[in-house]
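Duplicate of #3305? Posting structure anyway:
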């Protein structure tokens, strides 16, 4: 989740994501969505925390924002379009700018909104007009005569007329100017307590379930008119709907669009829109204020019709709609589906803006998150925010709980056993129990296009997940091109054949003495070690003897045994023809991508230098992180021993001659627990880089 306190969140630019709620920079409610110019425009009301002097446990709304999106994922806040202190007829301290609507007609955009008028009599509905769906909107000086109520909605029917709905389902035709009720608008005598008065329009909800009904939203589809509306079925609002062949009814009740919110949020309010062939339900919920149902946030779900035109009931989700880019922080607790044992909870009940977490309690638990776009990922790795019990293993898979493994993480945590003392809990184990940690994992497989993610618990302990994100690595290497390369401007050689790292455990870098290095660099790990000219993609088999301390060493033993254990290691490794993006060749990053280990390994590098003539009296200048050895045409020319840091021209060879024609430069780099990279160039007698040669390690 975005770990931002509410007071900060309300001041941020509007960043939105493809999960519910969709608006994160403010509270929003009563959403009306409309499609203008191939974009979805969202006109919600704006819940705020009541200022001093206002009723603290009631709705409080002082203005309207408009938002828009092309993909229902990235929402832009276009700012305030109408506010209570800039509408001539609205009482400026009323804080009652409730559910609005906006439609396009006659070349203009008409924004309809309710509020409390200055005369203090109930609610009225006004209209503001603009040339753009984003405004600026100019309010009319007076509200629409004849409408006393809230929650306007305008239906532009196929009969050519525009009809305005408001309050508890009242409806009247509008004049063509869209600012007045038609002259033939009917009136109805209504009794309220002891009062009897006239109301304009037709009561379209008469005889239908309509207890405390409000917020009508009408639309037309496939020859039917739909009147949808919130009403209280038991204690809180549901979204119901009725159908008719006439925009002003009579309507026949058909059922629910959405049932009551599970957490008891009193209200719901909505709109329904078709965008690019898919129908969507926009509604609100109080996810970011679960103890205050007067501060709501807009959510979206897909909506579907049955063949007979009735609407399938919509189940609210936290996944919502829209496609996430894999490189975004994906709030995985907003899953699309999950095994029955998965539970969710807020990350921090003192700050609901931090969002939620999902817990997979046991082996076999899983949760699925739909529609993640991997087209933005080229050379990636995964970050995941988790809490986990001891000895937990989990996978991120593609499409299903049995799908391809994208990344795997094992959290095998064991007690430390200090010499002469009782076992102690490791720091890592303690951290995992007490806080969220971001774990990094290399990718075993990279999906293409849009796919679904599934997290599976495959270990013995419980697992809680907050978010997952995929990141592109900085571009350290490119495949070597077919054309010969040149040294860079400073003479550094960037084209190399690199062999995937050989497993060579080292307890530390301090053992890298001259004698140790010569012993281990001159061992034969694979055939042709000092003679072969490898090709890109060529595989070799490395077979060698490897010393290792016995299993009990390190648990109180003062020194290793005189005769270490020896095992035979066999590895199948591949050569890669690569151009380094940096003057220093980052072997550690090479090992991350192509190796099985990054520490305690041995790297082999080969490059082919073609000279148009003899170049005498040059020196090989090398810097390497950790120790290395270098050979030119089979002859050792430089040894960098000890625990080193990579420094340009750290060591210089004796005077050498690059002969006319082909020269073979080989290097071996060894590391222990640290990073590893190297930089190589030739310098002339004056210390200037030598560049008059080409490098030909093409595929």
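Output from current build:
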């Amino acid at each position: 989740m975005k770990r931002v306190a509410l007071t900060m969140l309300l001041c941020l630019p509007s960043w939105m994501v493809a999960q519910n709620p969709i608006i994160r920079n403010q509270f929003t409610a009563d959403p009306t969505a409309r499609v203008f110019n191939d974009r979805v425009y969202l006109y919600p009301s704006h819940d705020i925390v009541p200022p001093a002097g206002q009723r603290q446990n009631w709705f409080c709304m002082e203005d309207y924002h408009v938002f828009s999106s092309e993909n229902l994922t990235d929402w832009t806040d276009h700012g305030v379009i109408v506010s209570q202190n800039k509408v001539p007829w609205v009482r400026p301290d009323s804080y009652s700018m409730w559910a609005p609507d906006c439609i396009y007609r006659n070349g203009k955009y008409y924004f309809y909104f309710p509020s409390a008028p200055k005369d203090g009599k109930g609610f009225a509905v006004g209209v503001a007009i603009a040339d753009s769906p984003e405004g600026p909107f100019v309010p009319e000086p007076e509200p629409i005569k004849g409408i006393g109520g809230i929650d306007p909605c305008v239906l532009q029917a196929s009969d050519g007329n525009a009809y305005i709905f408001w309050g508890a389902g009242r409806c009247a035709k509008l004049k063509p100017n869209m600012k007045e009720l038609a002259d033939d608008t009917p009136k109805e005598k209504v009794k309220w307590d002891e009062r009897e008065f006239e109301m304009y329009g037709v009561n379209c909800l008469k005889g239908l379930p309509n207890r405390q009904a409000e917020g009508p939203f009408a639309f037309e589809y496939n020859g039917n008119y739909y009147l949808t509306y919130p009403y209280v079925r038991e204690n809180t609002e549901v979204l119901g709907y009725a159908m008719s062949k006439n925009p002003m009814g009579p309507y026949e009740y058909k059922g629910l669009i959405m049932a009551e919110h599970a957490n008891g949020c009193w209200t719901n309010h909505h709109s329904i829109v078709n965008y690019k062939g898919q129908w969507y339900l926009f509604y609100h919920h109080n996810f970011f204020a679960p103890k205050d149902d007067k501060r709501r946030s807009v959510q979206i779900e897909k909506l579907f019709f049955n063949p007979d035109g009735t609407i399938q009931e919509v189940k609210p989700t936290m996944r919502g709609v829209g496609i996430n880019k894999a490189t975004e922080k994906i709030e995985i607790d907003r899953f699309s589906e999950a095994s029955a044992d998965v539970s969710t909870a807020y990350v921090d009940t003192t700050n609901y803006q931090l969002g939620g977490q999902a817990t997979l309690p046991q082996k076999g638990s899983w949760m699925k998150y739909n529609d993640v776009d991997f087209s933005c990922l080229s050379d990636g790795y995964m970050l995941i925010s988790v809490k986990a019990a001891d000895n937990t293993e989990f996978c991120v898979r593609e499409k299903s709980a049995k799908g391809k493994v994208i990344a795997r993480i094992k959290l095998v945590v064991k007690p430390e056993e200090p010499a002469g003392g009782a076992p102690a809990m490791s720091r890592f184990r303690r951290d995992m129990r007490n806080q969220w940690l971001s774990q990094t994992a290399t990718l075993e497989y990279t999906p293409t296009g849009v796919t679904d993610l599934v997290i599976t618990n495959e270990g013995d302990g419980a697992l809680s997940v907050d978010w997952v994100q995929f990141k592109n690595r900085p571009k350290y290497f490119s495949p070597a091109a077919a054309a010969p390369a040149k040294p860079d401007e400073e003479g550094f050689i960037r084209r190399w054949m690199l062999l995937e790292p050989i497993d060579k455990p080292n307890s530390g870098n301090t053992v890298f003495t001259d004698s140790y290095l010569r012993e281990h660099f001159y061992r034969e790990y694979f055939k042709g070690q000092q003679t072969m000219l490898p090709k890109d993609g060529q595989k070799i088999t490395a077979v060698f003897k490897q010393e290792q301390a016995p299993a009990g060493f390190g648990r109180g033993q003062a020194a290793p045994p005189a005769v270490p254990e020896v095992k035979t290691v066999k590895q199948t490794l591949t050569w890669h023809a690569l151009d380094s993006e940096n003057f220093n060749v980052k072997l550690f990053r090479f090992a991350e991508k192509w190796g099985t280990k990054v520490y305690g390994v041995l790297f082999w590098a080969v490059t082919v230098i073609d000279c148009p003539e003899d170049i005498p009296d040059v020196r090989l200048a090398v810097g390497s992180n950790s120790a290395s050895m270098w050979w030119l045409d089979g002859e050792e020319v430089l040894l960098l021993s000890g625990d080193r840091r990579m420094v340009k021209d750290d060591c210089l060879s004796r005077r050498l001659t690059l002969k006319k024609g082909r020269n073979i430069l080989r290097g071996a780099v060894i590391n222990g627990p640290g990073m590893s990279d190297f930089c190589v160039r030739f310098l002339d007698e004056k210390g200037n880089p030598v560049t008059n040669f080409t490098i030909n390690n093409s595929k």
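Confirmed duplicate; merging threads. The longest strand covers residues 565-580. The chain has four helices and 45 strands.
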